[in-house]
Amino acid sequence: MPTLLIIHHTPSPFMQDMFEAVLSGATDPEIEEVEVVRRAALAVTASDVLAADGYLLGTPANLGYMSGALKHAFDTFYYPCLDSTRGRPFGYYIHGNQGTEGAERSIDSVTTGLGWEKSAAPVVATGPVTKDLRERCWELGGTVAAQLMA
């Protein structure tokens, strides 16, 4: 059974709302035969990443960059997973109080280096979590998970 790994840093209510919507989309009953595994960015291991077939990444934009926790996760598994995970699909979601461009660039840079394939448009937001934002997060989770169905 294919596995979708959600690597997230969820330190705020806004990030929690987005995470729950992504998870709900990924585990929708219409998505069959896909195991969804959740790991906090500070707890994910190279083994978790190697065992997965696709990825969803969630981070706040901190000082114009991805969170230190997600950066730490990438630092932990980048080289052990570099050759073995090329071509795997991924998506991401970001919440920031101001600019998110640096966080987007940093995620795009690392995932390009890993050779991962962006399989859904990122969900990037500032301000409160709205119904529309929750729906976009749900679609992100569902889209990436559906691509893993056999």
Automatic annotation (TrEMBL):
InterPro entries: Flavoprotein-like_sf, FMN_Rdtase-like_dom. It holds the Pfam family FMN_red. It comes from the Bacteria. GO terms for molecular function: oxidoreductase activity. SUPFAM superfamilies: Flavoproteins (SSF52218). Residues 41-106 form the NADPH-dependent FMN reductase-like domain. This is Multimeric flavodoxin WrbA.
